Amino acid sequence: MSLLWTTRDMIAAMAGRPLGTLPEGITGISIDSRSIQPGEAFFAIKGDRVDGHDYASMAMANGAALLVVSEARLPAMGRLTVPMIVVEDVLAALVKLGMAARARSRAQIIAVTGSVGKTTTKEMLRQVLAPSGKVHASVASFNNHWGVPLTLARMPLDTYFGVFEVGMNHPDEIRPLVKMIQPHVAVITTIAPAHLGNFKSIKEIATAKAEIFEGLVPGGDVVLNRDNDQYNYLERTAQALGIEHIHSFGQHAKAEFRLAEFNGSDQSSTLWITIDGETKEVAIGAPGRHIAENALAALGVVKIVGADLDQAVAALARLQPEKGRGKRHKLSTGHGVFTVIDESYNANPTSMRAAIAVLASSAPTGAGRRIAVLGDMLEMGDYSEKVHADLAGPLLAAGIEHVWLVGPEMIALKDSLPDSVRVTHRATTTELIEYVLNSVAAGDVLMVKSSLGIGFGKIVAALLDKFPPVADTQREF
Residue 345: pLDDT above 90? Predict the structure, then answer.
């Protein structure tokens, strides 16, 4: 395997002090001693809950080529005689290495933010750009103050396209991250009431997301959702910063990358998009109109960076929903098959509505039911009661008659639903797990969604543990 960094370059970039006999270089970077691969460097970052220095021995036992540790913690590491690069602060050193990676790279860099759809759009870009060159992209949702520099530092020198996800839940979080990334293209998927408890208004959220413009390289491009109410504000903000290349996507008649028509089923989507006056049919291996919007943004980026558009369109047909973001599981009860739609990664009012729409398009079989399994949306602040109660409208419009709820905030939804809807509410996820396992039946379709902190991934895991999977080729009955 080729070297990601020589130790000489690492020491220079991080202003580190070598200790012991260092290898020529490293093949990768890890901050997790459990998953580190032989030949990688282990950065002993101190987090909110754990300190990586406490796991240095485990990292070496699992094959780490060297450790990056702080000067202050060195005495406490005792007689550990292993190759090290000693720095003042490990996270700061990772940031320096990430910036060095950006400085040496000749890749076209894309940064993606937005209230909804960041990770999905990033994964689409990974897939649609791959036919045109080597892609390096964030893993999972590595989009914060350690995830961004880690992703940068891991970027190989021969990368052709770099795709970075940028997240925030407060003002002034995106600004330092995007100044590290220095994208050629900045994408804002949409502005929605996520983390609303930390902001006074939707416009404040838009302002925070618009921080992504500040890191754009001179002459760079911005891609915005023209169907979003904040489009005009974002466009003006970009123009005020001297950005000339502003592109838009959506169904709006003036959108540069326009959704001409959409046809969705329960497991896939077909859309017709118009780019440069030409209309193309696009098949996507995932359901939902929101997925189609993300695809428009991704294909717009393909056009901007000069990648192969036809191959990008073909790649979208191979797209599959990810764990926690719409992945489907067909499971056997012994008497038949039911379906779980795993939307457990996170939730806000906009993504809840999108997931409810996907559930509405998913047909139960036999005597099966459509069941919305919903948990609290966190960080809604003073808006919490209203945004939870407002989910009653989409559920009723979708004809969802079975709703299983968790959390104190979901009481507002429970109280807003009529008696015609069969509602079950539990205080905790653990309590609801038992109910779900005992109540699910053949033919059901369950859509499971909550904010990450509610832990709805445990519900999906419990279902997968109890009920065996069924191959897609097996007919439901």
Answer: no
Strand 337-343 relative to strand 445-449, pairing: parallel
Distance CA 477, CA 474 (A): 9
Q: Quote the tokens at residue 389.
A: 């109660």
At 475 the pLDDT is 37
Q: Where are the domains of the chain?
A: 5-89, 105-316, 327-466
pLDDT band at 474 (very low <50, low <70, confident <90, very high): very low
What tens digit of pLDDT does each residue of 136-164 get?
A: 998 877 889 999 999 999 999 999 999 99
Residue 297's pLDDT is: 96
Question: Residue 123 belongs to what H/E stretch?
Answer: helix 118-129
Contact 223, 188 (CB under 8 A): yes
Q: Which two tokens stand for residue 152?
A: 């940068």
> How far is the C-alpha of 458 from the C-alpha of 456, rounded, in Å?
5
Per-residue model confidence (pLDDT) at position 472: 62
Fold of 105-316: UDP-N-acetylmuramoyl-L-alanine:D-glutamate ligase (3.40.1190)
CA dist 185 and 129 (Å) reads 14
Q: Where are the alpha helices (DSSP H) in 182-280?
A: 202-209, 231-240
**CA 422, CA 432: separation in Å to the nearest integer?**
15
Encode pLDDT of 404-429 as tens digits. 999 999 999 999 999 999 999 999 99
Q: What are the phi and psi torsion angles at 306 (to 5°)?
A: 80, 20
CATH topology of domain 327-466: Protein-Tyrosine Phosphatase; Chain A (3.90.190)
Tell me how far apart the alpha carbons of residues 467 and 330 are, in angstroms, rounded to a whole number: 9
**Backbone region of residue 232 per phi and psi (left: phi > 0; alpha: psi in -120 to 50; beta: other values):** alpha
- Look at the domain 5-89 and name its fold: 3.40.1390
Asked if the model's pLDDT at residue 244 lies above 70, the reply is yes
Burial track 288-317 (b if 16+ CB lie within 10 A, e otherwise): bbbbbbbbbbbbbbbbbbebebeebbebbe
User: Given this model, what pLDDT does residue 288 score?
Assistant: 80
Strand (E) positions, 316-395? 327-332, 337-343, 370-375
- CA-nearest of 78, 217, 47, 262 to 147 is 47
